[in-house]
Design a protein that fits this description.
19 strands; 5-stranded mixed beta sheet; globular
């Protein structure tokens, strides 16, 4: 049963400002209002928003330690030192490793290796095992991507073994910064870089940009790497504003026009429209397949030259041979199929457990622990539980003698602070407002559960436990013309900070009574809707996982809908479709 949602219509933009922007840019007042709501309140800002330019990227040398990082890379290249490109096992980490590795190879440095720690035997971040392997392989420099900002002891350990570190991270640092040759992180308190919401891959790209800039390598010579960067930006859910908007805009162009062989193999597996790949396609299709590799246990597969784990993802992303990329893509897709099967099973177990324990259902948060669950999918399970119960959620399992897990939050609640309030019970933790990872000793689980639940109980606003749909503005179906949709497409790419707008229309009906339930389990509602006072405006809609209003709608009774406007590509034809976010029965008539 879907959770009832509250609708909140956003404050509308100042009418005079909206009119000025609409006239200046030549768009409808409805869409000009969207710009003003997003702080784009002048014609100049609007033109810059609609026309992203590489010239508006920030100088990479504004980032603290960038000059030191470039100098150390130069030194490694001059001396032909072996460089290890090291990254986290998720999409952001693996794309970052692939991007930096491919650039170093592009400029002729082939004394290279890459390394992704195993989630199950090494855990997140820099590992001693990785450093030991680097030293054994004669590595003199490790470039760490999407991790390392808290690896003070590990960096010191590496230094004892004669291995230097450059850290490229985007997570919040602790009070002590690792004693690396260079620590690139725009979230450092002593870093004045103008934009601190880059992905880990984005920080890696800034290092590449800085090196290219210093060595007079034309910017267009590194643009080809942006297909990897946009996959990172979309998958890591960083705000699509400022530099991220520019990089994602051009990254999508690369992904659609000339993706690298590795990404092309995934695109083909997903059967995506090669000329119309979107941020949603990355988030829901490309990203999960790359992520799946790092989630699976390496010992579940017989390698025989077939790579496993996060290493397999990088192997795919750096592969230049189409046939080999197709083979690796199949391996990655196999990981994803296995992952989906496991996370469905574990999610059902978690649901059954909560439903059988009324005291759990009564709380304002969920902490659930099963030592048998696979470590790699607990984050997905936490997100699934939020879809049903909508409250801050921690899912824990056991790995290597410790209890480890993932936490996910709901809109408006700072999960990181809740986890941090229990830091004395934790071996380590990290994350941000809406997602975190944590590790503790088994004997601390009970106390952690109590204290986490108490913190949420004391600090959460009960109102936010009811999910909210933010509506940008009301809209008439008659406003949704081809030119309106064309103008709306100029707002892309959509994502956090520039979400696809949500509109609402009241009193619409299924005139012909031909609504259908579709999907493997008849879980989705497909229906043509007509606005009652505008009978000539019928629009095709799809409501995912919302079958409960089927009989009401099919009988011709009116509903209010809130939705996003999308393009439906099917067998070569393109139609406008409304993706319904929520439905409310209209009982006014």
């Amino acid at each position: 049963m879907p959770i009832d949602k509250r609708w909140e219509v956003k404050a509308q933009g100042d009418k005079a400002t909206v009119a000025t922007v609409a006239a200046g840019v030549g768009i409808s007042p409805v869409l000009a209002n969207l710009l003003v709501q997003r702080g784009i309140d002048t014609v100049e800002k609007a033109e810059k928003f609609f026309n992203p330019q590489f010239a508006d990227l920030h100088d990479p040398f504004l980032m603290t330690d960038m000059d030191k990082a470039v100098e150390r890379v130069e030194q490694a290249i001059e001396r032909n030192e072996r460089i290890m490109v090291y990254g986290d096992y998720d999409v952001d980490g693996t794309t970052a490793v692939a991007l930096v590795y491919k650039f170093l190879r592009q400029i002729g440095h082939n004394n290279l290796m890459f390394y992704i720690p195993d989630r199950y035997t090494e855990g997140y971040g820099i590992s001693r095992k990785g450093i030991d392997i680097a030293a054994k392989k004669g590595v003199k420099l490790i470039i760490a991507l999407d991790c390392g900002i808290k690896a003070v002891e590990k960096v010191d350990y590496a230094k004892e073994k004669g291995v230097d570190f450059i850290i490229c991270d985007h997570h919040l640092p602790a009070e002590e910064i690792p004693h690396a040759v260079a620590v690139l992180d725009p979230k450092r308190t002593d870093c004045s870089y103008p934009f601190d919401e880059l992905s880990g891959c984005g920080v890696g790209f800034k290092l590449v940009q800085a090196y290219a800039q210093k060595h007079s390598i034309p910017f267009e010579n590194i643009v080809w790497l942006l297909d990897l960067l946009v996959v990172s930006i979309a998958s890591d859910i960083v705000p699509l504003v400022d530099e991220n908007r520019i990089l994602a805009y051009y990254g999508l162009r690369c992904l659609n026009a000339s993706p690298s062989e590795g990404l092309l193999s995934i695109i083909n597996i997903c059967k995506l429209d090669r000329s119309n790949i979107t941020i949603d396609d990355i988030v829901f299709k490309i990203g999960p397949r790359i992520n799946a590799a790092g989630r699976m246990r390496m010992d579940e597969y017989d390698e025989n030259d077939t790579p496993s784990g996060g290493y397999a993802a990088v192997k795919l992303l750096v592969e230049g041979d189409e046939a080999a990329a197709t083979k690796f893509g199949g391996v990655i897709d196999g990981f994803n199929q296995d992952r989906k099967s496991i996370d469905r099973s574990v999610t059902q177990e978690a649901h059954d457990y909560i439903e059988s324990h009324p005291e759990l259902k009564a709380r304002k948060s969920t902490v659930i622990y099963n030592p048998k669950w696979m470590k790699g999918i607990v984050g997905i399970v936490a997100s699934r539980l939020i879809e049903t119960y909508y409250r801050p959620t921690v899912v824990l399992t056991q790995s290597n003698g410790f209890v480890t897990g993932s936490a996910r939050s709901i809109a408006g609640f700072d999960l990181y602070q809740a986890v941090e309030s229990c830091s004395d019970l934790l071996e380590n933790f990290g994350g941000h407002m809406y997602a975190a990872g944590l590790t503790m000793r088994p004997e601390n689980v009970e106390e952690f559960t109590r204290r986490f639940n108490d913190y949420v109980e004391a600090n959460i606003d009960p109102k936010i436990l009811i999910p909210q749909v933010e509506i940008d503005s009301m809209l008439l179906f008659s406003d949704i013309t081809p030119s309106f949709h064309s103008e709306l497409n100029r707002f892309q790419p959509f994502g956090p900070g520039n979400n696809a707008p949500v509109f609402a229309t009241k009193c619409v009906i299924n005139e012909k009574g031909d609504a259908k339930l579709v999907g493997a389990e008849a879980e989705h509602l497909r229906v043509d809707l007509t606005q009652t006072d505008r009978p000539n405006t019928t629009i095709q809609t799809i409501a995912f996982s919302q079958p409960t209003h089927y009989e009401w709608i099919r009988s011709g009774k009116p509903v209010d809908v809130c939705y996003q406007i999308v393009e439906n590509h099917y067998r070569g034809s393109v139609t406008t479709q409304l993706r319904i976010k929520d439905i409310k029965r209209n009982t006014d008539k």
